[in-house]
Amino acid sequence: MTTMKLAFDISFTHTEGKWATPGSWVGADYPDVGMFTELAVAAERGGIDMLFFGDGTGIPDTWEQSMDAAIRYGIQWPRQDMSPFIAAMAQATTHIGFGLTYSSTYMHPFYTARLLNSLDHVTKGRLAFNVVASGRLADAANYGFDGLMDHDQRYERMEEFVSVCKALWDSVEPDAILRDRSTGQFADPSKVHRVDHHGEHFDVAGPLPSVPSPQGHPVLVQAGASPRGIAASASFADVVFGLGGHLPSQVKHRAALDAALVEAGRRPEDVGILWATQVVLGRTAAEAAARKEEMATMLMDEDAVGAYLSYNSGFDFSVLPEKFTLAEVAAQITAAQATQSGFVQRLIARRGDDGVLTRTEFFEEGWKYATGYEQTIAGTAEQVADELEEQFLATGSNGGFMICNPQSMPSSLYEVTDLLVPELRRRGLVSDTYAGTTLRENLLA
């Protein structure tokens, strides 16, 4: 059995009401860089392998075609470009890695490859690239699109995007730079290559005008859970980001990924899944249960829940009738080229295609999803470790967990590093030390 890898998702430590919860920062506000360097130092001290930053570039406006609810309640905004923050955190740490997100739907591979090469240098080989296919209308509008790109086309573009990035990262061979003072030769021209890519979506000449980075390529992360998304993961991902909290769905995802990896000519044991998992820890079970119930004070307004769900699916749930089947909603989502995985698919997994919901029931379930209530594991360190160990073993002991806490920062991170990690180490599930100096060595070993 390989050891369990642990990442900490700090994409939304300041949104959906968490900025005001007990245990959150006082006297510092997002995006104070000192907040992030403090987190990075604490996470490294606790042995966390990676800090992860998701991203979105638009203020949610899918719900009722308006930004008002998202702005009013702080739903998935504000969001900074985290690349300069990662550069700062890297200077305060030596081992922990950093996951940065960019959209292959809207970004250009040449710019992205060059930026990530530079960040891999700045972090000394501790960078991961989370490649996403964007299904959010607010993001699309900021890049000149008046609608969403076809679902499968987004993944076709992603695969070409990654192929171009990898070709650019390989366009200057690792030993191309000579710096020979005796001859004055800086580099060997035979080891610097044009890419000359001419594809359906991109034309890129290359080479990358950069020095090869410590990892060569950043660690590639992908989170697609639809059949087409899983196929994309199998084609290039080093590690997959999956939805945790529902073991049957996790087992199904692992099996589907394994089959796709074999189809792509890759070994399933080489690609782990980090399951997104929310935890609430207490020194007693009663304390943890009480803290979980505090989540009832978050996102109580239907507009706030609707803004969250609609933005993340790309479909306006304000148009739902008073009663409907989940199959009907799924069909509308597909027709709108919106995201086919996520909240509705999770409901279908639990209730079936023919499950009937009223509008009120839908938003009650949506609140649980948006806050993370339904997938939150609450308990003592021993109880939470029991749950994680069960999931880890049931999904092939391959990967680990992307831990996010629905309540507050920095106190939630300290609870994970001070209570949960020592218990996992006691069981031999996580390593006592970092395996190497690069993220690839630590996360994929």
Going across the biggest sheet, name each strand in turn.
1-2-3-4-9-10-11-15
CATH topology assignment: TIM Barrel
How confident is the prediction overall: mean pLDDT?
93
**DSSP strand tally:** 15
N-C termini distance:
12 Å
- How much of the polypeptide forms β-strand, as a percent range? 15-25%
The geometry reads as: globular
Spans of at least 5 consecutive residues whose pLDDT stays below 50 are none
Please bin the fraction of helical residues.
40-55%
Main beta-sheet annotation: 8 strands, parallel, barrel
CATH-level-4 superfamily name: Luciferase-like domain
Whole-number radius of gyration? Answer: 22 Å
Structural class: alpha/beta
Tally of alpha and pi helices: 16
The tally of domains stands at 1
The CATH class assignment is Alpha Beta
